[in-house]
Amino acid sequence: MAARRMTRTRTRTRSRARTGTVGLLAAAVAATAFAAPAQAQDRPAQAKAPRHTATQQAMDAIVASGIPGMLAEARDGQRVWKGTSGVGNLKTGKARGKNDRFRIASITKTFVATVLLQMEAEGKLDLDDTVEKHLPGVVSGNGHDGSKITVRQLLNHTSGVYEYLQVPEYHNKYLIGDGFLKHRYDYRSPQVAVDAAMSHRPDFAPGTAYAYSNTNYVLAGLIIEKVAGDSYENQVRERIIKPLGLKATTVPGNSSLMPKPSSRAYSVLFLDPATAKVHDATLQNASQSWADGDMISSAGDLNRFFRALLRGELLPAEQLRAMKTTTAHSDDGTSAYGLGLGRQTTSCGIELWGHSGGWIGSLSNALSTEDGSRQVAFNLNGDWPKAGVADPVEAEFCGSGVPKGGAKGFAPLAPLAHLTR
């Protein structure tokens, strides 16, 4: 029975609340076109890399459906292709930049999980340690009990800990409409998120089901800080960013700024995309998403990170196996979730590993083949994708991402959305 319950997944996003508001990654929404697809002169690499024609076409279709702009980078060994479509600034009409930096949202979770797995390899903690051991008294109240939850269960979202973004008081203050506009520059400590989660009962007993909860990775970040005696941000810099030379990757902390080069980020602030005003959400205090989704990076850096991770450059074999040990699976078996790392299988049978990320004004995905030989990463600077338009991952790996005759398309943004947001 326990195994059967484990396969029950619950659709949950960083952006959808039980209050009934429309999420950033709704499967089907109406949208108004803001920009035409990129013209040929905007993508000179296309002529040099015809194998990416389908990817470019998928990006153009997504932009034509109403998203301001999109970028992608694909890497195959030493060969790199970069593509853009649409605009990075709705006011000036400036094209989307191929080297733009953007908020990677929940892709941050793979970095966090990697740090904790490195710590386990160093003997500083064990995945089966209880949360209570490292954070005494933190996970308690309303049925939450840190002595019954393990570090592993935080990382694979089987802890049952309540999703703080679903708490109406939190959601309304920080995310939706006027709440976001009023508080977008506020510093928010991790404890605020934990307190919000603890104000509600857990979703289920630890280890009996799967439900994606950003609270899990707030707690994971706090465990990193407790074990290291150092900030989560600095541990990510010293252990991953610096060794890999990820020069476009930052852990912004208490900052609302975006490093250059970057485009503007646009959001409907969790309101109905068919009627909501589009807001420039570029500047927002990164502390409000912290270890569950605060990092900034580029497509190139994300490709380098996932290439290194899956080639065993960041983790010993034992920890990498643990990271790829999945506990939650989609009903059709095409997607699954491990420790901060998702798995999906394309329509042409290629198995990919990575993570997606959706946050206010930014939607991203980064995926790699298991052997680290090929990667693709992309970002949208608008958070209201229209369903059934195109799938750039299918386009890149299978050669066709623009649906025909009702074929399954780009709905929602990331193929792992039902497991990893």
TrEMBL record:
Molecular function via GO: hydrolase activity
Secretion signal span: 1-35
Domain Beta-lactamase-related: 57-362
Enzyme kind, highest EC tier: hydrolase
Protein name: Serine hydrolase domain-containing protein
EC number per UniProt: 3.-.-.-
InterPro entries: AmpC-like, Beta-lactam-related, Beta-lactam/transpept-like
Listed Pfam families: Beta-lactamase
Record keywords: Hydrolase, Signal
Lineage: Bacteria, Bacillati, Actinomycetota, Actinomycetes, Kitasatosporales
Superkingdom classification of source: Bacteria
